[in-house]
Structures are given as C-alpha cells and as structure tokens.
Amino acid sequence: MEKLKRVLTQIAYNNYSAPFHYTPLLPILSFASKLYGFALFLRHHLYAFGLFKSKRLPVPVISVGNLTWGGNGKTPMVEFLSLLFSRSGICPLILTRGYAGGDEAKMLKRHLAGTSAKIGIGANRAATAACFLNKYGYTDHGGPLFSDKMYPIQEFGSCYNSLKIGVVILDDAMQHWSLSRDVEIVMVNGIMLWGNCHLLPRGPLREPVAALERADIVVIHHADLVSYAQLRSIKSRIIEVKDTINIFFSRLVPCYFFEAKNHSSTLPLKLAANTIVLCVSAIGCAEAFVRTIKKLGALHVDIMDFSDHHIFKEKREQYWESLGSDIRRSDYLRYLLS
C-alpha cells in the first residue's frame, strides 16, 4: 500500500507527464477520475436542488478545507483560529472526522490544552455538533464574527460566557456539505499547488479548481518557501476563478527541536546549522519540511518520506535514532498512537 501511495503521488505532482514506467496505469486512473468527477457533479446537484439539505447551526460556522490532499496547513489554521477565538472570550468547537488514526485531533488537543476550545470527533459532524451544543450550550456573540479588537484585547471577550460554544470550526470540510457555513476558508499549498490538475486518483484534486468560487478566503501556505514571482502567479490564477476573493499568505515558523524520547524537551534550532540532517516524515508536503531545515543552515539534507498519515513502527524509530534523524512533531504523535 505504501508503494502504491508513492506511485500515485509521483503521478499526481508531475505537471507535464507521468514517468514512462507508470503510463500503463494512466487509463485506469483517468477512468477512475471521471467516475469520481461524476459522483461530485451528482452530489453537488442533489444539494443544489434540495434533495440533500445542509443543517444550519445556531452559532457561526467556519470551514477550513482544501482542494488537494494533505500538506496545505489546514490543521495549523484550525489551531490558529481556535486560539484566536479562545483568547477573545469566544469558546470554539472544532469538528473533525478524526480519520487516519486521529493523530491530528490528538495534536490539536495537546496544543489547545488549557483553552476553552472543545474538540468533537466523528464522521457525522451534525450529530457531533448537536451533542456538544446540548451538553455545553451556546451563545450568540451579537456582532461581527471577526473584529480588529478580537486579539489580544481581553475586554472584548469579558462579556461572553466562555463555557458556552460561540463558534464552530469545521476541520477539512470543504467537500462535506452536511453543515452550512458562514465563512469558507480554503488552504492552498504554495509549493505543490494543484499538481497535474486532475481529480483523484489521477491527480491530487478533490474538486476542480473552479470550486474556489465557493471560497470566501484563500490562504496560500508555505509562502516563505517559494519566490515572490511564484506567489504572484498563484494569486493571479486564483483571481481568474473569483476576482473578489480575499487572499492571504501563511507560513510555519519552527520554534525548537525536541528529543524523540522526551517530547517535552526543547533544543535550540541552531543545532541544525552546519550539520548533515536526515528528515523522516509522513506528511502531505515533505518538501516544505526539507526546505525549512535547509533554511536553518544545514550543510546537507537527506529525506526519508512516507505517505501522509503513515503509521510508524517501533523498529523504524530505533533505526532512526541510530541515525540521529529529525522527526516532525505530528509524526511523533502518530507513532505514539500506533
């Protein structure tokens, strides 16, 4: 399975043509993509004609999603928004499907510990939301969802009951329409963008790029790892789809390293300077990890990348320890769950 995922990734992100030895797979993948596209078309029209209905929650709903698989900064954005609302006195409820072993949900719980944020895990987000709203109650914040006074001014949140849910954040929900949303945020990977622009499984797209018409905000992630000319090109392509869309840029800033056997430890980033580093990862965009380590001054960077959400085994960790490798925090949590 790991080898198949690697093959599909190589095909999906080759912008010109697939490697020659993979060409026998293309007719099968193209046919599967057409079936997938037809299913999307049918589902969209079932909602459009009211045969399927989206449920409206009594609080504002923000969706954070993407057009492609993994590596778009979706989970960090969910965490950022949750901290923003929590520190402003508005209690956020994160609704996530918790797939692939639930490693992202576990990471959110660790990072948001001590805040008012609540995390609901389940495939049926409407049912999960109803359960949490009944348990904790909800409150109407009575004003704009976003305000220039939201953070870090404490007085803004003092009039709200932070124990009651004031906003719902949908994690990875662009393609899940069972809940209506007030704001649609779409994350775009500035490094990998939309690959070969084909739908799954021939390409990385969950929906055609034209689906950006539904977005209110587009965030170009890893903006610090690509050139200014590339950012301008990406922005132009997005504006071609919807010229009124709000476009922002984001980046992940490393703070420290930590020892694999003691994840509460902190080691300075300067340890990577003038060293040879092996980056072991199972994330959606391993290239971003490599470029970040290079920016820290590493002499040479090798990479051992696995498919997104790959479950690591103990014997592999022992091997990496012998090599002195870097392991992404999300991957370390994934190992703890295995």
TrEMBL record:
Pfam families: LpxK (PF02606). The chain crosses the membrane at residues 20-42. GO terms for molecular function: ATP binding; lipid-A 4'-kinase activity. HAMAP family: LpxK. InterPro entries: LpxK. Keywords: ATP-binding, Kinase, Lipid A biosynthesis, Lipid biosynthesis, Lipid metabolism, Membrane, Nucleotide-binding, Transferase, Transmembrane, Transmembrane helix. Pathway: Glycolipid biosynthesis; lipid IV(A) biosynthesis; lipid IV(A) from (3R)-3-hydroxytetradecanoyl-[acyl-carrier-protein] and UDP-N-acetyl-alpha-D-glucosamine: step 6/6. It is an enzyme of class 2 (transferase). This is tetraacyldisaccharide 4'-kinase. One of its GO terms (cellular component) is mitochondrion. Its EC number is 2.7.1.130. GO terms for biological process: lipid A biosynthetic process; lipid X metabolic process.
